[in-house]
Amino acid sequence: MPEVLLISLTPVGREARLLRQAISLRDRGWKVVTAGYACEQALPEAVDFIELAPVPPNLSPAKGWWLRSCRRLSRWAPSFAERYYWDFLGNDVAFEQLAFVEEISPDIVIGHEYFSAPLAARTAKHFNAAFSLDIHEYAVEQYAHDDKWVRTWMPYVAALERCYLPQAEPVSTICEGISDALVALYGLERPPIVARSVSSYREMPFRPVGDTIEVLYHGLVSPLRGLETAIQSVKLWRPEFRLKIRGMPDPGYTAKLSQLAREHGVADRVTIAPGVNLTELI
Fold first, then answer.
1. Nearest to 16 by CA among 204, 271, 276
2. Could you check whether the bond before residue 170 is cis, i.e. omega within 30 degrees of 0?
3. Which of 109, 133, 207, 226 is close enough to 124 for a disulfide, judged by CB 3.0 to 4.6 Å?
4. Least confident of 79-93, 224-238, 245-259
């Protein structure tokens, strides 16, 4: 049975795209192992999980300052990005765990997003396995509205992608626009494969509305999603409409959204609900 290792340095149980990939490979006869951070969400049946826990080293203030500076210096040489990735973030501990502790023997290692790329590539080389990358976002511009991020993080993101995307075979991403952008930015010889982030089809019965109509948002609950504007707009909706925001927000951000609803007189029409398992999403 061929074995695939899927790496995402995020809570794996919340990564819908990774889990769809895992299920697809599992159903085609692969042994599927995932590696990343633990969370309360359950993984699909017959998909193994390795909890990674990178251990940042105990650095002197001067050494910590130097390694943080490597993020900015990455614009001139990828080696600075590598230093930050391994020496500051402690991802070498995760590599040692995968390479020498866990009982795995992958035929292919797939990293999800740029921040998993160095770990996935190094692990694949250790096992003499193929190396692939799945890119979810156009990462170099994901937070381009933030000047500080542009100065301190964008060079690091670009350096890692410039180094590892050409090594991966294949690269996949979510849409033609990002695929074309990655080719233009990094001069990739082959365009990334497009695999859209679309849930598996399920037949759903028609459900007529009642006296109230609930408008549901589910997804990332963060300031980047325009939820403030959505809440402010509720007072302009017809009175039978309600807004429910479903996700896993930071408690402090939830409080800000609730306060905003009160300020606009729609607190009784806006609900902020906890997230649910991916299998329960509509």
1. 276
2. yes
3. 109
4. 245-259
Asked if 158 contacts 75 with a C-beta cutoff of 8 angstroms, the reply is: yes
Kindly report the average pLDDT of the chain as a whole number: 92
Q: Which helix (H) or strand (E) holds 211?
A: none
| Strand positions, DSSP E, 127-203 | 130-135, 171-173, 193-194
Structure pTM? 0.85
Dist CA 270 CA 7 (whole Å): 37
DSSP single-letter state for residue 59 = -
CA-based nearest residue to 91, from 55, 46, 44: 55
Rounded distance between C-alpha atoms, residue 93 and residue 89, angstroms: 9
Residue count (the chain): 282
**Cβ contacts of 69 within 8 Å, gap of 6 or more:** none
Side-chain half-sphere CA neighbours of 109 within 13 A:
26
How many helices (H) and strands (E) in the chain? 10, 10
